UniProtKB/TrEMBL annotation:
SUPFAM superfamilies: Caspase-like. It comes from marine sediment metagenome. InterPro entries: Caspase-like_dom_sf (IPR029030), Gingipain (IPR001769). One of its GO terms (biological process) is proteolysis. Pfam families: Peptidase_C25. This is Gingipain domain-containing protein. GO terms for molecular function: cysteine-type peptidase activity. Residues 2-255 form the Gingipain domain.
Length: 273
């Protein structure tokens, strides 16, 4: 046996009939009345915190670069600094294995990112107001990578109370790739639960039910995107679940864990829908 899933699984985190009514009506609305606003599909939101020795910024910019360079989309950035002072020409991270990621996804590889930090990235302007504006305007995916906790994201600072300022009627899928934001066994409502339960907010959300780990989480992100768009990592063919673009995040969660195992990292079990 192993820790890898043998089936796709997800949950509806309703606490009562009112929650269930809201959530199911969101699902039905999404299926019965597909959105036609162009910006919903063209402007994915990528939010992250910069930390010099981590890969938060690397994971986020690789996803952003794929959206922009391969899919022709116009991703929206909301970035803030946890630690460090990124400057154009700096390395993406001081982690010793960063060169391998840059070689693969960088200018001499897949071309999703430059080999060094380029000018023009707004590292310090991300905030809750900007995140809510992007979601309220319309976006089909929200991708966050940084630290997290029961109440929400570290950088940019975006927590339970900020969700009260959402009024979107087009619902995104949210990847909350950080610690604890999906801790469904916590004593009170956590970030992912509220994001999913409220009238506005998320159609669905992928979030960690426990403490999760740097570098592992970043690799998991790349695996999920390779499930949804198999051209994301053309070098990974050992386990191709679909072979075609498959925007089903539940399947992507399963696929991401197999991708993670193939990469050599050995933690597969904390992320849930």
């Amino acid at each position: 046996g192993n820790d890898l899933p043998d089936m796709h699984h997800a949950r509806i985190t309703a606490q009562d009939g009112n929650d269930l009514d809201i959530m199911i009506n969101k699902f039905l609305s999404y299926e019965r009345n597909p959105y036609t606003a162009t910006n919903f599909y063209d402007e994915p939101l990528v939010a992250c915190g910069f930390q010099t020795e981590r890969w938060f910024q690397l994971a986020s910019e690789i996803v952003r670069g794929f959206f922009a360079n391969e899919l022709g989309k116009s991703p929206v950035r909301q970035y803030a600094i946890y630690s460090g002072n990124p400057q154009p020409g700096d390395p993406w991270s001081t982690n010793t294995n960063t060169y391998m990621i840059v070689d693969y996804f960088g200018a001499s590889g897949l071309g999703y990112i430059p080999d060094l930090i380029p000018p023009g990235i707004p590292w310090t302007t991300g905030n809750a107001t900007g995140i809510n504006a992007a979601i309220n305007s319309g976006t089909f995916i929200v991708q966050h990578r940084d630290h997290g906790g029961y109440s929400g994201w570290g950088e940019p600072d975006y927590t339970l109370s900020d969700l009260n300022n959402l009024f979107n009627t087009m619902y995104p899928y949210v990847f909350s790739t950080n610690c604890l934001t999906g801790a469904y066994d916590y004593s009170s409502e956590v970030f992912a639960e509220k994001f999913h339960r409220i009238q506005y907010g998320a159609l669905g959300i992928n979030a960690a039910s426990d403490v999760s780990y740097s570098f592992v989480n970043d690799t998991y992100i790349w695996g999920m995107y390779d499930c949804m768009w198999p051209q994301f990592d053309p070098g990974y063919g050992a386990f191709d679940m679909t072979g075609y673009s498959n925007l089903r995040p539940c399947q992507a969660m399963t696929y991401g864990k197999y991708y993670l195992q193939a990469s050599g990292w050995q933690l597969h079990h904390h992320f849930l829908l």
